[in-house]
């Protein structure tokens, strides 16, 4: 941990105690955000345990299988965050082309026989017993890559806003991995990436025409798909089943219905940990991953589930503050992309369990079980911390 | 924004950042709001759904208690049938959903695989019958007629038949000991309805979906005791129906046994003799209508005088109560409820009402005494009595000169009572009543008429005392119709309607006079009359008749006796009671029933009787026979059966003879006597809880004597002159 120093800022300090000095890195970290993320991860450990402790088929006979792994993932995630802070987002900026290239290569590998299908999404790489979901990393490299392109000339003071050519280039950079992910198909991740692109463009100061054009294109495309009857009725029903479970009572409708029963039956204070009948009876599918929020809803009630939303709120609120406070556009764009990512993914994930969003296979940041998603989320926290740390002291 | 450092960024980005922040907050608030709506606003609803989701009940019905006769002979019990059932949850765990097992099972049971598959499939909108309608967690019966060999095959090869059970299961049975059907008294069972389940939900004896419920008779009255408590095992199940735990369970409690006061031997005799009497009546020519008597229905009650307990109760036509077991067929049900079969489900002993005729005269005599007339006074008994030009004839226009009330009862003289009732009517103010005393009506109410006796059988009817209040109410209800159809000087019905329209609300002289001999609008049930005659016999106590005598718990450890309960006293002093009793004995020795009781050992077993022949407008006369000995009262009635002594008398005598072990000549053989004294002791309960039951031999009726003997008997009983004197 001695490496908690920031290159490019002040002389090297090697003393442990100095790390906690008034103007030290440790003191200047965004602690509310960090602790909230940590709290979410630890709540996740408990919820994942509750959801899997009697699913013998999943936990390979060990009730603590997922408990230990989620805890381990959290630890690795925190280490990755620390590494990110140590490197700093500016250093990473120089490595973006390499990182982007690697991440695109990884998702291309998924399309080869090395890829594996888990839960209907061909989004996994299984190597030596470890499974990896490279699309999670792509989210980060899209943010970093687009930010690098869009901020380059603005931060250099050449221009007030990115020009059209740069925006087009940035969009092309994002489109390549998005198309690959769509082929998997992992539509949930594509949706998140679209939102990230939107957040990045917004915070980059790109012309309103780009923003509106993008939104218009998305809406137009959806209407086109609808009108041309490209989707079968059952596909539309499956999509709409979040609002009316009767449309697909055996498939997605069943899941959303059971999820809603689980959450609704929690009431104010919940059934108590490990006491939820919906959870114990395994009525809700994918409860340790995509539907982890239902465990909180049933066993911890409105208070516990509300706390999760509040903690996510703290993370996002602090991220917004960081985005607004930083002096360079690069950091602003990176923060904006992460905000869009976390905000949309959390809203979509919790919203689908509450029946106000269609079902999509997306994890709840920090809480859902899943190594890659956990690592990506903590790296994002590291990036945000780094942005905070590196803002000019003249402002402080 | 002023505190934001110089960033070199444009206001565009700054504004957009604020927009993003607002957007983020509103998304989170949306989630919080929706969470509140689901968990707080609709929380209870979802909690209920969650519990419905995960708890499944397996119900093991309690064995229904038996209904026993007074000596412990079962008249309703359970027989064991081998029921083969399949557990759907077990079958669904198999790779082929249990198809192979069911196919093997079909082979053993000699059914086709299709038949078996249809039995275990669940009913839904698209599945036609046959299909399983109950809970999928309940074992589904495939057949209840498995042979012991088939059951053994299944049980010995459990590994080949996982999820299949072959178990002896109790099914209701009405064994009819000694050919006594006791149909309407026993009642029947049928499956519980949704409505009943809902209604009993929060009571101390809720129904389960698998319950059978007593629908009438004893099965209904004592349903709660007989039913016991079904055992319920509650399993917590997961989304695949796999059991993940056991919740609170209730063990089954077998239903209690109900001991009745019915003696199945006497019951068999009563049913047989009532039927014989009706058959005999159907061969008799009715002189009024010049047709054979219809004898379309009849009822008989045998009651213990000192307790009101019912020893036998018959109602014809009857039915086989076993028809209801395992679900009644549509054909049987139609038959049981049709006019053509004359509604065999009716228990006419408590639900059949008719004018009582002369058996009512014990009430009129009491009324007269209470009104101040001397029982031993002299009252003219002319052949007819006229009121304002309307002539009321004595039965068969017989006159007896001047007689006392006792003799008037014996010979059943109508005109004595016409005279007394008319005098009272005049005293009460005649057509313009002033504070009427209404002795004759008041006394009938005091005898318990016009209301239920309180017998422990459902749906008893009240009968009717046609007093002033009733007349008024009845007129109010019907005057519109009468006044519309009534026509002065029209046909008989029109003339009656016309008169009713004008003065139907008033108690007319004719009404009072008719009423005094048990005719007109008076209605009584056989059980009411049995209660009254038993009260005369026991010194004046009107008991609530009972069939149930004791409830014995299934393990035999707890016996709850049902004590006799009285609902009133006869409105007469002991002197009057003795005078009436003497007169009723006279009926059997020298009066209207004497020709039927020749050779009766009156000194050993004093017989008291009263005959009645009630006229019914548009129908043949109703035969009534009310009688008692020191221990028993027997009342019999036959609708459209003729006279009391003619149609019912011999049958009643035969019942007594069987009970006391009498020959036709009045010789008593106590060994042959079925029940010379009322059965007071309860049946013996064995240490294991079973109840000792003696065997019952069917009733062998005495061969009818040659005609010559009958002639002798009739002569001995008071001469041919008294034939049909009711």
TrEMBL record, chain B:
Chief location bin: membrane
Xref: InterPro entries: Beta-lactam/transpept (IPR050515), Beta-lactam/transpept-like (IPR012338), PBP_dimer (IPR005311), PBP_dimer_sf (IPR036138), PCN-bd_Tpept (IPR001460), Penicillin-binding_protein_2 (IPR017790)
Domain Penicillin-binding protein dimerisation: 60-246
Bilayer-crossing regions: 17-37
UniProt keyword Cytoplasm present: no
Keyword Transmembrane assigned: yes
Bilayer topology term: Single-pass membrane protein
Domain Penicillin-binding protein transpeptidase: 298-657
Chain segments annotated as coiled-coil in the UniProt record: none
Region (Disordered): 678-726
One cellular-component annotation, GO: plasma membrane
Subcellular localization(s) per the UniProt record: Cell membrane; Membrane
Any Gene Ontology biological process: peptidoglycan biosynthetic process
Gene Ontology MF terms: penicillin binding; peptidoglycan L,D-transpeptidase activity; serine-type D-Ala-D-Ala carboxypeptidase activity
The entry's keywords: Cell inner membrane, Cell membrane, Cell shape, Cell wall biogenesis/degradation, Hydrolase, Membrane, Peptidoglycan synthesis, Protease, Transmembrane, Transmembrane helix
PANTHER family per record: PEPTIDOGLYCAN D,D-TRANSPEPTIDASE, PEPTIDOGLYCAN D,D-TRANSPEPTIDASE MRDA
Protein name: Penicillin-binding protein 2
Taxonomic source organism: Streptomyces albidoflavus
Lineage, uppermost ranks: Bacteria, Bacillati, Actinomycetota, Actinomycetes, Kitasatosporales
Name of the gene: mrdA
């Amino acid at each position: 941990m001695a490496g908690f120093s920031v290159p490019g800022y002040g002389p090297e300090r090697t003393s442990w105690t100095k790390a906690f000095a008034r103007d030290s890195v440790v003191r200047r970290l965004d602690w509310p955000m960090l602790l909230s993320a940590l709290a979410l991860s630890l709540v996740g450990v408990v919820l994942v345990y509750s959801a899997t402790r009697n699913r013998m088929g999943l936990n390979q006979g060990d009730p603590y299988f997922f408990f230990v792994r989620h805890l381990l993932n959290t630890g690795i995630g925190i280490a990755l965050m620390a590494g990110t802070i140590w490197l700093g987002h500016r250093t990473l900026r120089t490595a973006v082309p390499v990182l982007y290239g690697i991440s695109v290569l990884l998702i291309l590998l998924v399309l080869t026989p090395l890829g594996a299908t888990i839960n209907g999404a061909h989004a996994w790489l299984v190597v030596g017993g470890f499974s990896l979901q490279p699309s999670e990393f792509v989210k980060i490299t899209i943010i970093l890559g687009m930010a690098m392109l869009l901020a380059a000339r603005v931060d250099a003071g050449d221009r007030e806003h990115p020009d059209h050519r740069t925006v087009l280039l940035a969009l092309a950079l994002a489109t390549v991995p998005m198309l690959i992910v769509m082929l998997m198909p992992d539509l949930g991740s594509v949706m998140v990436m679209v939102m990230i692109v939107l957040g990045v463009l917004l915070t980059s100061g790109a012309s309103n025409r780009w923003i509106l054009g993008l939104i218009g294109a998305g809406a137009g495309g959806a209407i086109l798909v609808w009108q041309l009857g490209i989707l079968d009725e059952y596909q539309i029903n499956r999509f709409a089943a979040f609002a009316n479970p009767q449309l697909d009572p055996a498939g997605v409708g069943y899941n959303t219905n059971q999820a809603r029963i689980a959450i609704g039956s929690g009431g104010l204070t919940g059934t108590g940990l490990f006491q939820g009948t919906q959870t114990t009876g395994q009525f809700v599918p994918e409860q340790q991953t995509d539907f982890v929020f239902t465990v909180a809803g049933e066993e911890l009630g409105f208070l516990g589930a509300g706390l999760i939303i509040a903690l996510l709120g703290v993370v996002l609120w602090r991220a917004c503050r960081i985005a607004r406070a930083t002096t360079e556009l690069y950091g602003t764009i990176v923060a904006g992309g992460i905000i869009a990512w976390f905000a949309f993914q959390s809203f979509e994930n919790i919203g689908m369990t509450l029946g106000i969003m269609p079902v999509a296979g997306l994890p709840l940041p920090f809480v859902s079980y899943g190594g890659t998603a956990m690592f990506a989320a903590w790296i994002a926290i590291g990036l945000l911390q780094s942005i905070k740390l590196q803002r000019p002291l003249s402002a402080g | 924004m002023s505190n934001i450092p110089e960033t070199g960024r444009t206001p565009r980005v700054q504004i957009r950042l604020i927009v993003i922040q607002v957007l983020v907050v509103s998304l989170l608030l949306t989630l919080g709001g929706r969470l509140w709506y689901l968990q707080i606003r609709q929380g209870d609803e979802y909690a209920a759904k969650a519990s419905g989701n995960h708890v499944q009940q397996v119900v093991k019905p309690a064995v229904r208690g038996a209904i026993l006769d007074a000596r412990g002979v079962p008249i309703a019990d359970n027989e064991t049938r081998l029921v083969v059932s399949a557990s759907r949850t077990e079958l669904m765990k198999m790779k082929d959903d249990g198809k192979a097992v069911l196919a093997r099972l079909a082979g053993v049971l000699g059914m086709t695989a299709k038949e078996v598959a249809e039995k275990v499939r669940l009913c839904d909108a698209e599945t036609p019958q046959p299909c399983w309608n109950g809970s999928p967690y309940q074992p589904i019966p495939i057949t209840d007629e498995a042979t012991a060999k088939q059951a053994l095959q299944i049980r010995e090869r459990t590994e080949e038949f996982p999820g299949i059970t072959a178990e002896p299961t109790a099914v209701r049975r009405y064994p009819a000991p000694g050919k006594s059907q006791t149909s309407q008294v026993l009642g029947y069972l049928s499956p519980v309805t949704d409505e009943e389940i809902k209604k009993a939900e929060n009571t101390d004896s809720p129904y389960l979906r698998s319950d059978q419920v007593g629908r009438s008779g004893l099965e209904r009255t004592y349903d709660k005791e007989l039913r016991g408590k079904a055992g319920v095992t509650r399993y917590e199940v997961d989304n695949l129906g796999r059991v993940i735990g056991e919740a609170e369970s209730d063990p089954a409690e077998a239903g209690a046994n109900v001991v009745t006061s019915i003696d199945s031997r006497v019951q068999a005799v009563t049913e047989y003799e009532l039927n014989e009497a009706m058959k005999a009546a159907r061969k008799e020519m009715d002189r009024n209508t010049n047709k054979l008597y219809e004898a379309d229905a009849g009822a008989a009650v045998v009651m213990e005088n000192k307790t009101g307990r019912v020893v036998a109760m018959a109602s014809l036509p009857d039915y086989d109560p076993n028809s209801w077991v395992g679900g009644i067929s549509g054909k049987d049900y139609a038959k049981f409820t049709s006019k053509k079969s004359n509604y065999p489900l009716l228990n006419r002993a408590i639900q059949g009402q008719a004018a009582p005729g002369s058996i009512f005269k014990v009430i009129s005599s009491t009324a007269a005494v209470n009104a101040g007339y001397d029982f031993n006074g002299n009252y003219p008994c002319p052949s007819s009595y006229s009121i304002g030009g309307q002539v009321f004839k004595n039965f068969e226009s017989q006159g007896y000169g001047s007689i006392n009330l006792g003799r008037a009862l014996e010979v059943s003289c109508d005109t004595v009572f016409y005279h007394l009732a008319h005098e009272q009517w005049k005293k009460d103010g005649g057509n313009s009543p002033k504070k009427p005393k209404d002795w004759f009506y008041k006394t009938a109410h005091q005898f318990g008429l016009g209301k239920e006796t309180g017998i422990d059988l459902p749906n008893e009817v009240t009968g009717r005392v046609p007093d002033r209040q009733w007349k008024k109410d009845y007129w109010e209800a019907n005057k519109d119709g009468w006044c519309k159809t009534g026509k002065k000087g029209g046909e008989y019905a029109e003339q009656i309607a016309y008169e009713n329209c004008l003065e139907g609300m008033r108690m007319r002289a004719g009404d009072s006079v008719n009423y005094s001999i048990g005719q007109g609008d008076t209605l009584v049930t056989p059980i009411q009359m049995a209660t009254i005659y038993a009260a005369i016999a026991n010194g004046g106590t009107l008991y609530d008749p009972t069939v149930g005598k004791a409830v014995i718990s299934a393990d035999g450890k707890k016996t709850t006796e049902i004590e006799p309960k009285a609902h009133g006293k006869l409105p007469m002093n002991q002197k009057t009671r003795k005078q009436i009793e003497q007169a009723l004995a006279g009926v059997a020795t020298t009066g209207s029933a004497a020709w039927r009781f020749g050779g009766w050992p009156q000194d050993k077993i004093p017989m008291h009787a009263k005959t009645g022949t009630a006229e019914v407008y548009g129908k043949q006369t109703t035969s009534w026979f009310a009688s008692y000995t020191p221990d028993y009262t027997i009342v019999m009635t036959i609708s459209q059966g003729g006279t009391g002594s003619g149609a019912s008398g011999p049958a009643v005598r035969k019942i007594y003879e069987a009970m006391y072990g009498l020959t036709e000549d009045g010789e008593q053989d106590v060994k042959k006597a079925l029940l010379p004294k009322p059965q007071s002791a309860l049946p013996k309960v064995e240490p294991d809880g079973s109840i000792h039951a003696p065997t019952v031999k069917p009733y062998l009726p005495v061969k009818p004597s040659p005609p010559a003997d009958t002639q002798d008997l009739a002569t001995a009983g008071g001469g041919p002159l008294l034939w049909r004197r009711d």
